[in-house]
Amino acid sequence: MTIKLITSFVLAFLFASAFGKYYVPWLRRQKAGQQIKTEVDWHRSKAGTPTMGGVMFILAATFVCLTVGFDGMLHGRFEHIFVLLFACVFGLIGFLDDWEKLKKKENMGLSSRSKFLLQLAAALVFILIMRQLGFVRPQLYVPFSQRVVYMPEWLYLIFAAFVIVGTVNAVNITDGIDGLAAGTSLPVFLFFVAVTLAWGHRFQELGIFASAMVGGLCGFLIYNFNPAKCFMGDTGSLFLGGAIAALAFAYDMPLILITLGFVFIVETLSDIIQVGYFKLTKKLYGQGRRIFKMAPLHHHLEMGGWTGKKWKEKELFCLFTGISLVMAIISFIGVYQRYPY
């Protein structure tokens, strides 16, 4: 199994890095440039940088699942394919959003309502299919305590849809500076690889997908690390969110996302707090006030929030990725004894 996981990483890395060598110039020729929000003045120089770069790691993961994971499919193991297809559905939603932005030549694509309804429908269909096939059960494994809480079927369905849509959008919000979403997602997928090694062969196919994502993201970062030659776009960030959420449910431990997705949660909360506080103070005082210089949190730090230090993009990449790695290690400690090898 270890050999397959290593092979998955290597093949995905080579695929993404080699494909990007031709894909990024092609995107430039197609003038598939990202439009930058006007309020983000210090990012104006990035306008026109090609978007939809997430296709690199999406195709890399697909290639690995169909090659390294082919033997499992012959033996009736399709977990990695279900996770891949689910993530691809969210990637398709992101692609439609990116396409609308390119057509309109602005930073607004699909409406928030349209994206939410599409994501909700995808989440519900995924959970229903996984439940029908027996991959998930209406119960919640509680990390660190080794307890299982049973839930009514209808409540579990609502919970699952909320967690999936929330995770997808949290990763999307984190994708605000060069390499940040990819960097913070790497430890998350490494966590699932480590869990596969700890829990044994029954999770091998899921581990192949997770390892492929690690390799694909490393290959993608060659082009996305600051200064970025391309952005992953919503195509990539929604795929990432869908993949992370799908893996959490496929491993039957969605509650681990509380610690494992700590960075994504903090980023999302900073955005919610900012908007909520602005609306509340506007209603109370007639003028909206802000807690952060700009939300989400990475932009606040870029602008010198709290300490006055204006964090550079490479520094933020290291900071957030480092925190994500620490939380992945803590998460592993909380679950590795569930299924001793």
Fold and architecture overview:
The protein has 341 residues and is mainly alpha-helical. It contains 13 helices and 2 strands. Strands 1-2 form a two-stranded antiparallel ribbon. The model has no long low-confidence stretch (mean pLDDT 89).
> What is the succession of H and E elements?
HHHHHEEHHHHHHHH
Cα end-to-end separation: 12 Å
Portion in beta strands = under 5%
Please tally the helical runs, counting DSSP H or I stretches of 4 or more residues: 13
Helix content range of the residues, please? 55-70%
The low-pLDDT segments are none
| Average pLDDT, all residues | 89
- Rg to the nearest angstrom? 20 Å
Q: What structural class do helix, strand and pairing data support?
A: mainly alpha
Number of strands: 2
**Major pleated sheet:** 2 strands, antiparallel
Strand order of the largest sheet: 1-2
Shape: globular
Q: Give the assembly state of these chains.
A: single chain
Lay out the secondary structure.
Elements: H1 2-29, H2 55-67, H3 70-74, H4 79-104, H5 112-132, E1 139-142, E2 147-150, H6 153-174, H7 180-199, H8 204-224, H9 233-250, H10 257-260, H11 262-285, H12 297-302, H13 313-335
Antiparallel strand pairs: 1-2
Helix pairs in contact: 1-2, 1-8, 2-4, 2-8, 4-5, 4-8, 4-9, 5-6, 6-9, 6-11, 7-8, 7-9, 7-13
